[in-house]
Write a structure and sequence with these properties.
The protein has 7 helices and 21 strands. By secondary structure, it is mostly beta strands.
């Protein structure tokens, strides 16, 4: 196959979760089979959950297969130098009908040593939030492993954690080690390192239909937790037809684009771009005549070889790349 450069969309990988609901369908147009659909993995190369192209010439081809054949064309020169032909990010939508477990993720060093994996630095963009919806991010005050274990034993851990009310458009950047949980009534877009390593530390004493509780990872978590107070919320501008910086870290950069009309892009070949549509409709125009249409709930991979294009429409987009 020759590399035919166009915007790539992948078949969503739907994950049923004890805390999931139906908003992936009603809000983001995903096909779901149950009333507890918690996650839609939009772009993934996690083993066992590798994305399959859904549109165009490469329809039915896995992302890994494309990366083996066209690594620089898709990833870009800078990304290829850092990661070889591995796709370094994972893109998801999450619908929390109920509270998620309280959890954290290890850093690169621990994840490599223990799991031969990347760590899991991530960010959240709130697409929708019910009235009085909250998230948990970090401790209210500086803590310690001793205090953490005491409250865990007393089933009072939530009382020493920081609860934050959320609304549509809020952005949170979660560095590794940060205790966190998405609260009931929140739908988010999540951008993270390619990793599925999670240390669950408290699950609200829930059990499944068979009376079983989910596994906790207290021993692994103790030396991975950040006990300092963290400031995770990120503010950003709202300039129309511009990339408004929300998060910049070694793993990814995310801009929020309020698109209203037309926006031209002329890029180098250093990095792929991903567009996550959280509101509205838009299309990618190439060569003034090729148009690819997208809508709310779509996640689009623009290969690095696509260097000249326009975005047209009325939408809210997240633009993600590696710099």
């Amino acid at each position: 196959m020759n590399f035919d450069c166009y915007p790539l969309v992948f078949k969503p990988i739907i994950k049923d979760r004890i805390w999931g609901g139906e908003k992936l369908h009603t809000l983001l147009n995903k096909e779901i089979a149950t009333q507890t659909a918690g996650e839609s993995w939009e772009i993934s190369t996690v083993p066992g959950d590798v994305s399959i192209v859904e549109n165009g010439k490469f329809s039915g081809v896995s992302l890994n297969e494309l990366l083996q054949k066209y690594p620089k064309e898709i990833l870009g020169t800078t990304v290829y130098e850092r990661f070889g032909n591995e796709f370094p990010l994972l893109f998801k939508f999450l619908d929390a009908r109920d509270d998620l477990s309280i959890q954290l993720h290890p850093n690169d060093l621990l994840a490599k040593k223990r799991h031969n994996s990347f760590g899991k630095t991530e960010m959240w963009y709130v697409i929708q939030a019910d009235a009085k919806a909250e998230i948990i991010v970090g401790f209210k005050d500086k803590s310690s492993s001793e205090e953490f274990l005491h409250h865990l034993e007393q089933k009072s851990l939530p009382f020493i954690l920081n609860r934050i009310p959320v609304k549509k458009g809020d952005v949170f950047f979660l560095e590794t080690g940060t205790i966190h949980a998405i609260g009931a009534g929140v739908v988010i877009a999540e951008i993270q390192q390619t990793s599925d390593i999670t240390y669950r530390i408290y699950d609200w004493d829930r059990v499944d239909a068979q009376g079983n509780s989910r596994e906790l990872h207290i021993d692994l978590a103790l030396d991975a937790i950040t006990y300092d107070v963290v400031q995770a919320q990120r503010k950003y501008e709202s300039n129309v037809n511009a990339g408004n910086l929300a998060v910049h870290c070694p793993y990814f950069t995310t801009n929020v684009i309020p698109l209203d009309g037309k926006m031209h892009f002329s890029t180098d070949r250093s990095s792929f771009r991903v567009l996550v549509c959280t509101e509205g409709e838009f299309y990618v125009e190439m060569n003034s005549y090729l148009k690819y249409s997208f809508q709310k709930g779509d996640t689009v991979l623009l290969p690095a070889a696509l260097t000249d294009f326009e975005l047209v429409g009325k939408a809210t987009l997240l633009e993600i790349f590696i710099s």
